[in-house]
Specification:
By secondary structure, the chain is α/β, with parallel strands linked by helices. The protein contains eleven helices and eight strands. It binds 1,6-di-O-phosphono-beta-D-fructofuranose (FBP).
């Protein structure tokens, strides 16, 4: 079945604003400004992001005035970082509830290689089936993690993560980048027709952020699903503009840096 990804892409590329950190990391990522979901929605709309990612609670309480202003991706699972156990993240929101909340796509995290990966793989399969019945795109965050995983950023394991997204029917797979610019071409290849977007990670220096983005785009990835690198930035809209130069306009790092200087 062909799933229409048009809403989430511009010229076959995508820049998504992730904001599920309040659950995943707790409030330690936030300051007085970015703890407020309205601040994030304002950036998402003014920056013309391809979508914003929320857990269902934020979607319910903050997104409702933003319907049709910005596409919404509702995360269907999530966990805190408090329990020091093998990583597992169970579904907390149904596809139907996500649709009621205005979702244009749904997301789900799989900790590949965890003792509990079987639970997440099975749950994800059901989500893909249900979401695709509603023609809703599905995004898999696939993070190799847990005691069986040695190096969670090796090119081999990232390619496995990307491939897992394809095998399970994800329309988009969100993975980390390991700064192996050549090797990442293989990672993207492994994802086949599933599109690859990359997580931002902890906020970096501007030129480092732009350089990584340049490399992943050159490797064939479709873009970023970035959080902290934008909303922890002192000028989020300028950073957004700089990233867009690389993602949508194929500009160099130097040209993108001009936006920030
Ligand atoms: P960042 O760009 O801030 O890294 O956000 C991407 C993201 O995947 C979020 O959607 C998610 O909450 C977080 O990273 C997960 O972080 P971790 O790798 O620490 O589990």
């Amino acid at each position: 079945m062909e799933i229409n990804l048009k809403k989430l892409f511009t010229k076959n590329k995508s820049l998504i604003l992730a904001y599920d950190h309040g659950l995943e990391h707790g409030v330690s990522d936030f300051d007085l400004k970015n703890i407020d979901p309205d601040y994030i929605l304002d950036i998402a709309v003014k920056g013309k992001f391809n979508a914003v990612v929320f857990q269902p609670g934020l979607a319910e309480k903050y997104f409702q005035n933003y319907k049709r202003k910005i596409p919404l991706i509702v995360k269907l699972n999530g966990k805190t970082n408090i329990a020091q156990i093998e990583p597992v993240s169970r579904q907390n929101c149904s596809v139907k509830r996500a649709i009621k909340l205005g979702a244009d796509a749904v997301g789900y995290t799989i900790y590949l290689g965890s003792d509990f990966e079987n639970v997440m793989l099975a749950e994800f399969g059901k989500i893909v089936e249900e979401a695709h019945n509603f023609k809703l795109p599905v995004i898999a965050w696939i993070y190799p993690r847990g005691k069986s995983i040695g190096n969670d950023r090796s090119t081999e394991i990232l390619a496995y993560a990307a491939r897992t997204g394809l095998e399970l029917g994800a329309d988009i797979v969100k993975i980390n980048y390991n700064h192996d610019a050549e090797g990442f071409k293989w990672v993207v290849k492994a994802a086949g027709k599933t599109k690859v977007v990359v997580a931002g990670g902890a906020k970096k220096e501007d030129n480092e952020e732009l350089q990584s983005t340049y490399e992943i785009i050159k490797a064939g990835a479709s873009g970023l699903a970035i959080g902290r690198g934008i909303w922890q930035h002192k000028e989020p809209l300028k950073m957004t503009k700089a990233l867009k130069k690389i993602i949508f306009e194929n500009k160099s790092v130097n040209e993108a840096m001009k936006v920030l200087n």
